[in-house]
């Protein structure tokens, strides 16, 4: 059995869906960097679990823009590393912040204790 000291979360941060009458999307979400992502997650942890929850240590390992169907960046993909015992708290805080942060939607793409497992997207049999 594989035992890891870390747990990895692949997240997608996207602006909320906009109506066709307002076709431009907010750029603040798309211009976010690793520090901004880390601050957003720590803010969500602090709101959900208080000062103790906000002190959960995490590393932002990777940040990349996703290109949408119109050829422009429509979301930001992120891989973060957390302690395995803290992974559920991070996911719970991010789920709770979805309702309190209307300018950003955070989606879990994949999670794993094994970093290379995040490389696979679709499995076809």
Automatic annotation (TrEMBL):
Pfam families: Pop8. GO terms for cellular component: nucleolar ribonuclease P complex; ribonuclease MRP complex. Residues 6-95 form the Ribonucleases P/MRP subunit Pop8-like domain. One of its GO terms (biological process) is nuclear-transcribed mRNA catabolic process, RNase MRP-dependent. InterPro entries: Pop8, Pop8-like_dom. GO terms for molecular function: ribonuclease MRP activity; ribonuclease P activity. This is Ribonucleases P/MRP subunit Pop8-like domain-containing protein. The lineage of its organism: Eukaryota, Fungi, Dikarya, Basidiomycota, Agaricomycotina.
